[in-house]
Specification:
The complex is a heterotetramer. Chain B is mainly α. Chain B is built from 14 helices and 2 strands, in the order H-H-H-H-H-H-E-E-H-H-H-H-H-H-H-H. Chain C is globular and about 65 Å long. Chain C starts with a helix and ends in a 16-residue tail after the last helix. Classes of the chains: A alpha/beta, B mainly alpha, C mainly alpha, D alpha/beta. The complex binds adenosine-5'-triphosphate (2 copies) and magnesium ion (2 copies). The site of one adenosine-5'-triphosphate has 16 residues of chain D, from helix 1.
């Protein structure tokens, strides 16, 4: 069995984000271990179990890696039905199954880092609110939201400690209800902008392309070549999409996770949960290096960049340099504390937990 | 019989055009199609999956088909299905003896579908509001209502991504692979509507009202009552589509993005049209769609991206529109003058 | 209530695709052809418009490309439903599937991304009037509405188009080419759908995606019924829906989670408002007598 | 021999479904003549003329127009050459006004320019003055009486200044006066050197107005003769292919007990204006009350009100039971049967089978306790009906659409009569039917009368009124201008009454 099979829950390769990163990780592993990669995509969530059964039945694959949170039920069921097949689950746990590796991320961390930056930037430019445009109410999105809220409130406290000045930041989170509605994302962002939230995190897949667009359009209408307003990306380093108007992204290293999963499949160890957090560089706030990686990825894919790669890079970095240094100082401090385990981020896996978070960090 | 042959001809045409597209893009059409059909029918598990996949489509297809029979363009299956799924699931909360749970859930879900369809009928009959508008709008209302209920009221206390699961005793038992006895629900519904439409006075009236409302009225048939009946029966069918998705299919719960319901309601339109709005044709049309959906992943493994598969599906559906073209071809042949026979 | 006025500019833009596509469909349906493939037409046209703008570096050429794409898809639908006398609804459903697949595949093959965003150099530039920046489409839409209405109701062509949808035999016996006219009417409808698509990608959202219209093609169909096939009422319907949809998203976004109503309920407002307006003020629509029926002489 | 304006040689037509409608038919029309075209339902008259006017193309055969071989691909080409046709089933756009209908296809210079209504209007006025065919030009034609629509159709063709005018059964819906007017228009056209082809089932009209006559039977040419040299009997037998039996002599009789009583019936019409304005009458057992009148004077509304399709005020009693507030099903249950005026629109469901149509409106005896259909019984009863009423069809499973008009009508009549009604309302029961079918249906109605059925006959055809009725009422503008025994009336007088004169005026 020399084949790795990736099974995408939706969209498939071509999002230059989550799915493409998974593919990238698989390809890297394949190269290193002399394997082959095949992949396919669900034609709708109704097919999950039958597709996975079909894949497992063929006995052709070293490991079948389900990519995407939506496989939450079908993947463990398939792993139970086919105990001799190894499975990996990007974005989900292994459910104590010996033949499955769970690949989890601490989305809260990425969300919190973005929250710190968004809130401090807002303070720097005199705003009283930050925003987030979310897709649907599912736990990974909740975790981002919870982290974001926490980060924003932490930032306010930190700013007070730093300067002695009071600041107040409201966190406006809106759920558009779909992951594939850029128009809904844009209208929601325009509402947030009008409500005074000029830093907006996108956690809604294609929907949050509308966030970036609203930010750029508002900026250009005011005659600016860079923000604020700023959008913030998720999963990938999405800055290249709107250079100058995306200040950063909450990263999630799906490639690393997939690579690790393949490595596990080659060994004999029983399944476990690989939780990737900032400590293992699995989550984080996009670094300059990340940004360059993704510009590179986009160039290779043939993406219609807004200028030459160098121009794009310069614009992104210039935007970062344009915000007051205390923003980055705050980020660095938060990151340090996080790595040191000195910060406990709120849980948000159930409706009750997220409701509590919303009450606590309004 | 002729109708069946025409549909098969259209299917073949669609497959051929699809093959051309794949060939142009440098993929082996033969191998891809083999993968598609192996993936869908290759073994009993696959076949069971294809059949199972088609069960809700039968029901939403029936909703549209009976509407057409009554002269309606009823595209409300999506919303009614969502409501049916929610109510079917919620009936798990009732304290009932185990054996009763499933039947009661099905009855309640059908009632809910009927209630959700009622405004469509009332708006049409009392205010002349076209069912096209009211169903599109109510579909969205149902969608948002469900998003609220699934996340806020019915969610699994320990897992936020979906509602609680239907207890084991309330599920449709498995037959084979993914296929459950929900099969009987879809089959019976199709047979029942077939019987109703062609072997019962009410169905006769529905068809009469749909084909010529004026003549039907003149003959003392209440067109309004027929429309009401068609809309409400449609509501019940669509609700059952939702119910069997929740009660008869893993994970026996509704995910918080409603993904397990997908666009089954809308797909029912195409299913019904391909089945020529005949309940038995709907069975065939649904199985065809079930096949395409189930076989797609296997085709994907052969390097055909999901979007390409969608294109091919689109081409096949478009070709399904034109059986008339075959009739045209045949006419050309027979219209050569023959010696007077009158 | 400040927010009621605040959402106006957003609403004006939200109105455009629903109105343009609906007005095109009105023209098509007046000629007796139903095209429920608007969603697919908008999706694919948005993509080709983006490609056009990107390839030519001229947004207006991009708009033209979108328009042409819509026209070609209209032609395909017209060919199937008018010339081959196919089932118009099935063909429309197929076109919707096709549009979605073609964009996902095309954008990925071209740019490696299924939902790429377009740089601002590809955007249709805004027009400044009285110090306010307007989307040219917001101005164009009422013009198209008025033009379509004029053609339909004040010209010889319109007389013929409506006759062809109402009584094709009557048109045929006075020498009007029924099928040719229907075909062109379907092309015009498709072209306006294409324009709506170009607006989505080049003016409003500056992105391309297989689900870009996100259901607006179907809302446009509802708008056709709402308008009783009157382009001016379609403008009203488009604005009404656009306004309340924008308002609902605004309210839901700003209210957050503490509000009196869950945001999910707020989002049902545009749909409920539409229903109420139709029930109270619009009422019964009368469709062309030969709508959806292919015409043949023998 | 005068020159042929148009000549068709060996025309054969096979419809796409394989129906052979015409077989090597020769047909010629001379310049300046009125040419009658006769034949039973389905003989191929419409098919032949549709071919001449470019609507259909022949399967084989040639057409000579002014001596030159032509091939019309479409009505446009035929119109351009100078051939215009008024179709049997009107080709009008319902929601359009008369003027718009006339303008359609000839609107003006530029296709994107405005319709030149003023210019066309003037031209139409001119033609209306010359021909005496008057129609209102600013009303949607769907609101116009059928007779007026007919005139509009003719105007539409005249405006296009054709040399050959083809009229497919134009007189079925006109009053005698209107027919006379039409015929004088046709004669004056002929005297101007134009030619007319007239299709009709009424032989008297043929004898009255045509110069020559062609008879078709089963898609084949039977005979072409100068009208002078032929007679009514000869034409009838050459159409049918055998001697026509004479109509059974009608014995006058006075009715028995009163079955229907109508007092001061008022029925609102379109736009709230009353269409029936206080009508009173009664119908007795074994009696036919004939209601004569030009289409559109309230007959439709009168009938639809009585059968429960429209709201009304006043008093309507069937055998002493009031029909107030009852729907069609309840009215039918009380013993009222109804032959609707529009068999295809109201009487039948064309895509249904003959059997399904045969039980339309009388399903009760054919269902079991749960409402299931007893198909075997339905088929048996349909076969019986087909036989009793001589419906020509391939069987109970055939689509009603595939029946000819005459046979469709037989099916409707048979169905309604098999309901064993107390009262039968027959609205235009023989419109458009050939003589054999007409004959058959009239005979049937008379026979039923003799058996004691009460009959309300509504007809625009005076022959029919006089052949069948015991008493005659004339309806004009929503009221009855008197009811009188048939012996006391003559065609002339009734014609005047139909035109709006009162009894007194008509008498004087
Ligand atoms: N559209 C059609 N498709 C198939 N067959 C047709 C069609 N129209 C007419 N026919 C056939 O052609 C024959 C001649 O029809 P046609 O309408 O010319 O008769 P007609 O002489 O005009 O009868 P009528 O007196 O009832 O008007 C009919 O017997 C019928 O079987
Ligand atoms: N779709 C069809 N398929 C087969 N035969 C048809 C079809 N349409 C019409 N016909 C045939 O064409 C003939 C003439 O049709 P038409 O509609 O002119 O009726 P008609 O006999 O003239 O009756 P009417 O007097 O009501 O006009 C009929 O005899 C019928 O058999
Ligand atoms: Mg005829
Ligand atoms: Mg006829």
């Amino acid at each position: 069995q020399r084949k790795i099979c990736l099974y995408f829950d939706q969209t498939g390769p071509g999002d230059l984000s989550f799915n493409d990163m998974a593919l990238l990780g698989a390809q890297l592993a394949a190269q290193e271990f002399g394997l082959e990669v095949v992949h396919t995509t669900a034609s709708s969530p109704i097919e999950f179990l039958s597709d996975l059964s079909m894949l497992a039945e063929s006995k052709e694959y070293l490991i079948i890696i389900g990519v995407g949170f939506l496989l939450f039920d079908a993947l463990p069921e398939a792993a139970r039905l086919y105990p001799n097949q190894k499975f990996g689950f990007v974005d989900g746990p292994n459910f104590d199954l010996p033949n499955m590796i769970g690949l989890l991320f601490k989305e809260q961390e990425g969300g919190a880092l973005a929250g710190v930056v968004a809130a401090l930037t807002a303070i720097a430019y005199g705003d009283t609110a930050i925003g987030a445009v979310a897709g649907m109410e599912i736990p990974p999105v909740w975790r981002y939201e919870a982290g974001y809220r926490f980060g924003a409130h932490w930032a306010v406290d930190w700013y007070k400690k730093l300067t002695g000045k009071d600041a107040s930041i409201r966190v406006l989170v809106t759920y558009v209800g779909r992951f594939d509605d850029p128009a809904g994302g844009k209208v929601a962002s325009e509402a947030l902008l009008r409500a005074g939230a000029r830093n907006i995190l996108g956690i809604a897949g294609a929907t949050h392309l509308g966030v970036f667009d609203a930010a750029e359009e508002a900026g250009r209408a005011a005659g600016l070549l860079s923000g604020p307003p700023f959008g913030y990306g998720a999963d990938a380093a999405q800055e290249y999409i709107k250079p100058g108007f995306i200040l950063g992204s909450a990263r999630k290293r799906v490639d690393v996770a997939v690579y690790e999963a393949v490595k596990w499949a080659l060994g004999k160890a029983p399944g476990y949960n690989l939780v990737l957090g900032i400590d293992k560089e699995g989550t984080g706030f996009s670094t300059k290096e990340d940004i360059l990686t993704f510009i590179d990825l986009a160039v290779k894919a043939g993406y219609p960049l807004a200028g030459t790669p160098a121009e794009v890079r310069d614009k992104i970095f210039a935007a970062r340099d344009s915000v007051p240094p205390f923003v980055w100082q705050g980020l660095a401090e938060f990151e340090t504390l996080l790595r040191a385990g000195k910060i406990a981020l709120p849980q948000a896996d159930t409706a009750d937990q997220i409701a509590a978070v919303r009450r606590r960090y309004p | 019989m002729r109708v069946v042959l025409e549909s098969l001809g259209a299917l073949v045409l669609g497959l051929v055009i699809g093959a051309l597209i794949m060939a142009v893009w440098g993929r082996d059409p033969w191998a891809s199609y083999r993968a598609l059909f192996e993936g869908a029918w290759g073994n009993t598990r696959a076949l069971a999956s294809s059949v199972s996949r088609s069960l809700p489509l039968v029901l939403t297809g029936l909703t549209f088909a009976i509407g057409v029979r009554a002269g309606l363009f009823n595209i409300g299956a999506q919303g009614q299905m969502i409501i049916g799924a929610i109510v079917g699931l919620s009936s798990a909360l009732l304290a009932l003896p185990a054996g009763f749970k499933l039947p009661v859930a099905m009855v309640l879900s059908a009632l809910a579908g009927v209630l959700w369809a009622l405004p469509v009928a009332l708006l049409k009959l009392l205010r002349g509001v076209s069912e096209v508008i009211s169903t599109i709008m109510l579909n969205w209302v149902a969608h948002w209502l469900a998003l609220y209920l699934v996340v806020r009221k019915l969610s699994d206390p320990v897992r936020g991504e979906r509602t609680f699961q239907v207890p084991v005793g309330m599920r449709f038992p498995l037959i084979q692979g993914e296929l459950t006895w929900a099969l009987v629900v879809s089959l019976l519904a199709a047979l029942f509507l077939y019987w109703l439409l062609w072997y019962h006075a009410k169905g006769y009236e529905i068809r009469a009202a749909g084909l010529n409302p004026k003549a039907a009225t003149t003959a003392g048939i209440s067109v309004r009552r027929s429309i009401l009946l068609a809309i409400l029966l449609g509501g019940a069918c669509a609700a059952w589509a939702g119910a069997i998705q929740v009660l008869g299919r893993f994970p026996y719960a509704i995910t918080s993005d409603l993904a397990i319901l997908g666009s089954l309601g809308f797909d029912g339109i195409a299913v019904a049209l391909i089945g020529r709005n005949h309940p038995l044709g709907v069975l065939a049309g649904a199985f065809f769609f079930g096949t395409l959906a189930t076989g797609a992943a296997r085709m994907g493994l052969r390097g055909i991206p999901i979007d390409m598969i969608q294109i091919i599906q689109g081409v096949i559906v478009v070709s399904m529109a034109i059986p008339e073209a075959f009739r045209l071809l045949r006419v050309k042949k027979t219209s050569v003058p023959t010696k007077g026979k009158s | 209530m400040n927010i009621l006025i605040d959402v106006l500019p957003v609403a004006l833009r939200a109105m455009v695709p629903i109105t343009l596509a609906a007005v095109g469909e009105i023209f098509t349906e007046r000629a007796g052809v139903v095209n429920i493939g608007l969603e697919g037409i908008m999706t694919l046209s948005a993509f080709i418009a983006g490609v056009g703008s990107w390839a030519t570096r001229d947004p207006w050429l991009g708009v033209l490309a979108g328009l042409a794409t819509g026209a070609v898809l209209g032609l395909v639908h017209g060919f199937i439903s008018v010339c081959l006398r196919g089932n118009q609804v099935v063909s429309g459903v197929g076109i919707n599937l096709l549009g979605m697949g073609a964009v996902g595949f095309g954008a990925w093959a071209l740019w490696g991304a299924k939902s790429p965003m377009l740089d601002h150099s590809f955007w249709v530039p805004g027009i400044s009037l009285w110090g306010v920046n307007f989307s040219p489409f917001v101005i164009m839409t009422p013009v198209v509405v008025a033009f379509t209405w004029l053609v339909l109701h004040k010209t010889a062509l319109g007389l013929r188009v409506r006759a062809v949808g109402e009584a094709p035999v009557a048109a045929d016996v006075v020498g009007i080419h029924v099928n040719r006219l229907r075909l062109w009417a379907t092309v015009y409808g498709g072209a306006l759908g294409g324009l709506a698509g170009a607006f989505l990608s080049l003016d409003w959202l500056h992105t391309i995606s297989p689900t870009l219209p996100a259901g607006r093609g179907f809302i446009a169909l509802a708008n056709v019924v709402f308008s009783k096939l009157n382009p001016f009422l379609a403008l009203v319907g488009g604005f009404l829906f656009g306004y309340f949809d924008a308002l609902a998203i605004h309210l839901a976004s700003v209210a957050g989670f503490g509000g009196a109503l869950p945001y999910q309920f707020i989002r049902t407002i545009p749909y409920l408002v539409t229903l109420v307006v139709v029930a109270l003020a619009i009422g019964r629509a009368r469709f062309p007598a030969a709508l959806g029926q292919p015409y043949r002489r023998e | 021999m005068a020159e042929n304006l148009i000549e068709a040689r060996k025309i054969t037509k096979v419809y796409p479904d394989g129906t052979q409608a015409l077989f090597e038919v020769d047909f010629a029309v001379q310049a300046g003549e009125v040419h009658g075209l006769l034949g039973e339902n389905g003989a191929g008259k419409s098919t032949l003329t549709k071919i001449l006017s470019g609507l259909l193309s022949p399967t084989s055969g040639t057409i000579l127009w002014k001596g030159k071989k032509v091939r019309f691909g479409s009505p446009r080409e035929a119109l351009k050459a100078g051939i215009g046709m008024v179709h049997q089933h009107f080709a009008l756009v319902g929601p359009y006004t008369g003027l718009e209908n006339i303008a359609l296809g000839a609107e003006g210079v530029r296709i994107l320019g405005p319709v030149r209504t003023r210019w066309i209007g003037k031209k139409v006025e001119n033609i209306m003055d010359r021909s005496g065919l008057r129609v209102p030009l600013d009303v949607p034609v769907e609101d116009l009486p059928v007779g007026v629509q007919q005139r509009l159709e003719i105007l539409k063709v005249l405006v296009r200044e054709v040399e050959l005018l083809i009229l497919d059964e134009p007189t079925a819906v006109l009053t005698p006066q209107e027919v006379d007017e039409l015929f004088s228009v046709l004669r004056s056209l002929a005297s101007l050197g134009k030619s007319v082809v007239l299709i009709t089932h009424k032989l008297r009209e043929v004898l009255e107005v045509t110069d020559r006559v062609t008879v078709l039977r089963h898609g084949k040419l039977v005979t072409v003769r100068p009208t002078r040299e032929t007679s009514l009997e000869e034409l009838a037998s050459s159409m049918v292919g055998r001697e026509m039996p004479r109509m059974r002599g009608r014995t006058n009789r006075s009715g028995g007990k009163e079955v229907l009583r109508v007092e001061n019936l008022v029925v609102p019409g379109v736009g709230g204006k009353p269409a029936v304005r206080g009508v009173s009458f009664s119908v007795h057992e074994g009696e036919i009350l004939g209601v004569a009148g030009v289409q559109g004077n309230g007959q439709t509304e009168l009938v639809e009100a009585m059968v429960g399709l429209r709201p009304w005020t006043g008093k309507v009693e069937l055998n002493g039971k009031s029909l107030a507030g009852l729907g069609p099903a309840q009215v039918a249950a009380l013993g009222l049967a109804h032959i609707p005026e529009d068999r295809q629109g109201m009487g039948l469901i064309l895509p249904f089978s003959v059997a399904e149509n045969a039980v339309l409106g009388k399903l009760r005896p054919f269902t079991d306790r749960v409402g299931g259909l007893r198909w075997r019984k339905i088929f048996r009863s349909t076969a019986d009906l087909i036989q009793r009423f001589s419906v020509q069809t391939s069987g109970p499973r055939a689509q009603a659409r595939s029946l000819s008009g005459g046979n469709q009508q037989r099916l409707v009549v048979g169905r309604e009569l098999s309901k064993a009604p107390e009262l039968l309302i027959a609205n235009q029961p023989t419109r458009g039917l050939d003589i054999a079918a007409t004959h058959y249906i009239r005979e049937t109605l008379l026979k039923l009368r003799d058996e004691g059925l009460a009959l309300l006959l509504i007809s625009a055809d005076l022959d029919e009124i006089f052949e069948l009725s015991d008493r005659v009422a004339v309806m004009y503008n929503g009221t009855f201008t008197g009811i009188s025994p048939v012996e006391k009336l003559d065609r002339e007088r009734v014609g005047l009454l139909m035109g709006g004169l009162t009894f007194e005026e008509a008498r004087g």
